[in-house]
Amino acid sequence: MERGGLLLYILLVLSTFFSYIFLNKNKIKPRKRAKLPPGSMGWPYIGETLQLYSQDPNIFFTTKQQRYGEIFKSHILGCPCVMLASPEAARFVLVTHAHLFKPTYPKSKEQIIGPSALFFHEGDYHTKIRKLVQGSLSLEVLRNLVPDIETIAISALESWAGGHIINTFHEMKEFSFDVGILAIFGHLDTYYKEALKKNYCMVDKGYNSFPNTIPGTLYNKAVLARKRLSQLVSEIICDRREKRLDKKDLLGCLMQYKDEKGQILTDNQIADNIIGVLFAAQDTTASALTWILKFLHDNSKLLEAVKAEQKVIYESNEDGSKSLTWSQTRSMILTHRAILESLRMSSIISFTFREAVADVEYKGYLIPKGWKVMPLFRNIHHNAEFFSDPDKFDPLRFEVAPKPNTFMPFGNGVHACPGNELAKLEMLILIHHLVTNFRWEVVGSQNGIQYSPFPVPQNGLPARFWNQTVSNQRQQECA
Ligand code: HEM
């Protein structure tokens, strides 16, 4: 063989060899001797479902971690699963090897939300929808929403004031729904807003009920309400097309999308993604806000410090007669830390689900194809190795940034929450008005946790609210 030919031949052999190694490395093919992680698979068929649901789920996960370590197997809701309680393992599943783990939801839930919603997907479709959602929730867009979110927050707080008992979680759900509608549709006609709310509420009620087609059941009512929601979104789309409205909100971004072949999204794809975003936004933010109120209420020194921080802003806005600005919302350092600590303590999304698309080996353990994989965010957030004295509520711990991949209230990787900045913004704005103009009292003993399915303080944290400015004026008039 000629010298040039020999060189080419050697290069070809080497490149084949290295591509083989590279491809196999990325596939993480399990070696023959890889074994299943430790743990118990419970009873035939039901596995450990009863153990998980008959007690506080956090106790189930924590006990397992103490017994088996940071990776263990179990069997819940009819599925074999591997649970992962270390930052590295969560990063492996959600970030570095996300292509080996696909999102997985029960079919009944997928049908109710809408099968084209981004969180059920991966690959190109997921990437393109995610870009649109992220674009509509970017910081440039959010900064213009501050005055409107403020109006929604003030109106919500005023409706709670007067001393009657309210269910904090329910009221926070109304608030986060209204902010969600604002981010999706901008200013929307009251008729549509009310119709969307009424039908969404029925979907919400049926979402966690037993799936069946029997007329009159919660699930069946939810399916019918979901159809009406699609019709409503189609009407709003038609209306915008007729008026040639060119808006920058989420609906606008979804309507304007065209791929390189000129293909646009169908009305059903748009509706599924809008309902999906509303769904992802509402209970999560409402639950987080309810916890913040509880933590502020239970930590009077912190509440005073947060009040002092907000009072400076309030006074610089001529006692609230000027609107909050975007840069003021970015300067609420202590309030922001209190929000982060509330998110850590409550760990609303305690874990997430993925499914292994191939046999995968992690740290010598086999994760078999088809098994569910659950990164346990809450266990990581409550691990003393990463957060000292983890059960103590201490916002000051966020003076120092947490170690990488140890703080994931909004998830991590390709499916991480695109609404995290909106969620934090609405919390900051609501807290600003709450602590500068209102006072509140929690009613009854409030130490329990309820799962709805997100953890919420017992009974939704019943509380009474008073408008301090109105009370002060009345006192002055009487004096
Ligand atoms: C405190 C409030 C919130 C929390 C704690 C939260 C948490 C999360 C988490 C942990 C995920 C990732 C789930 C996974 O990997 O399986 C997620 C995804 C998502 N969140 Fe949020 N979220 C919040 C508020 C919001 C808001 C306000 C919006 C929209 C306005 C939103 C929209 C979404 C969407 C669309 C996804 C799916 C992303 C994808 O699959 O690519 N979330 N959220």
TrEMBL record:
Co-factor(s): heme
Binding positions for heme per the UniProt entry: C417
InterPro entries per the UniProt record, alphabetical: Cyt_P450 (IPR001128), Cyt_P450_CS (IPR017972), Cyt_P450_E_grp-I (IPR002401), Cyt_P450_sf (IPR036396)
Enzyme category, top tier: oxidoreductase
Gene Ontology cellular-component annotations: membrane
Functional pathway: Plant hormone degradation; abscisic acid degradation
Keyword Transit peptide: no
EC number: 1.14.14.137
Location(s) in or outside the cell: Membrane
One of the Pfam families matching this protein, by short name: p450
A single GO molecular function term of this UniProt record: iron ion binding
Membrane topology per record: Single-pass membrane protein
Transmembrane segments annotated in the record for this chain: 6-23
Keywords assigned by UniProt, alphabetized: Heme, Iron, Membrane, Metal-binding, Monooxygenase, Oxidoreductase, Transmembrane, Transmembrane helix
GO annotation terms (biological process): secondary metabolite biosynthetic process; sterol metabolic process
Major place of residence: membrane
Keyword Metal-binding: yes
Catalytic activity annotation: 2-cis-(+)-abscisate + reduced [NADPH--hemoprotein reductase] + O2 = (+)-8'-hydroxyabscisate + oxidized [NADPH--hemoprotein reductase] + H2O + H(+)
Family: Belongs to the cytochrome P450 family.
This protein's name: (+)-abscisic acid 8'-hydroxylase
Organism (species): Aquilegia coerulea
